[in-house]
Amino acid sequence: MGAHRDGAPAKQLAREAGLPLPTAYHLLRTLTHEGYLRRENGVFLFGAAAENLTAAPGVRSRPRPISVADSLGHWRDVIGAPVYCAVYCDGEIDLIAVADAPDTPAVEEWASFRETGHAHAIGQCLLAQLDERAREDHLDRHPVRPLTRYSVRDRATFLERLRTLRRGEPVIERQEYALGTVCAAIPVTAGATIAAMAISVPLDREDRLLPAVEQLRGEVASLLRSFVFSISI
């Protein structure tokens, strides 16, 4: 990490450390949970705990402003599930923060989240918020393709699904991106930004999915109201 002042993604750190990617992910999540690292805009950076290791005796790092990552970490602990936040920016899906823990790991990004928005809940939630032209442009650049036997099979079917999504209901995805995992996402309105937040749970705990995402919606709505934003529900 020390060689990357502006942070680095998990795959790069794994390659440079000579570690298998699953091992690197496990270590990165553990270090993030302990505060030695933090994840922002898809890269890992040193966290406050690491900065304190190099501080002079008796000197602690200055508190940093509360970030999206801080809020996600709080919601992860309250809900007991990984929490994700993504935005749609410059025609692409950008996963800006993830909060998980060793006992509640996030879904491993085995296929680029950016290129497979049709297959995961947070991507579907973002694409559903686009106008028809922007949506078609996105799918021209990132075609629909099945990732598992549960994935949507073609573009026409996927577009029809988006058209039938009801305002006020979370977007649910069952094993379309990763086998053994179910996810739910909610749209978030913060000015002109198109954003979404999501949670994931193992398939054998699917009964927790809807209560957990409703809890997340309440938590997010409460926070955003304090900043004169609103959640789109």
How would you characterize the overall build of this protein?
The protein has a five-stranded antiparallel beta sheet, sandwiched between helices. The chain has a two-stranded antiparallel ribbon with strand order 1-2. Strand 1 and strand 2 (43-46) form a beta hairpin. Helix 1 crosses helix 2 (21-33). The protein contains eight helices and seven strands. The protein is α+β, with helices and mostly antiparallel strands. It is globular.
Helices and strands in order:
Elements: H1 10-17, H2 21-33, E1 37-40, E2 43-46, H3 48-53, H4 68-79, E3 83-89, E4 92-99, H5 121-128, H6 132-141, H7 155-164, E5 171-174, E6 181-190, E7 193-202, H8 209-226
N→C terminal distance: 39 Å
- Proportion of residues in β-strands: 15-25%
Low-confidence stretches: 59-66, 227-233
- Beta-strand segment tally: 7
The overall pLDDT average reads: 85
Shape: globular
Order of strands in the sheet with most strands: 4-3-7-6-5
InterPro entries: GAF-like_dom_sf (IPR029016), HTH_MetabolicPath_Reg (IPR050707), Tscrpt_reg_IclR_C (IPR014757), Tscrpt_reg_IclR_N (IPR005471), WH-like_DNA-bd_sf (IPR036388), WH_DNA-bd_sf (IPR036390)
Protein name: Transcriptional regulator, IclR family
Keywords: DNA-binding, Transcription, Transcription regulation
Pfam families: HTH_IclR (PF09339), IclR_C (PF01614)
List keywords for this structure.
single chain, two-stranded antiparallel sheet, alpha+beta, 36% helix, DNA-binding, 233 residues, transcription regulation, five-stranded antiparallel β-sheet, 8 helices, Transcriptional regulator, IclR family, disordered C terminus
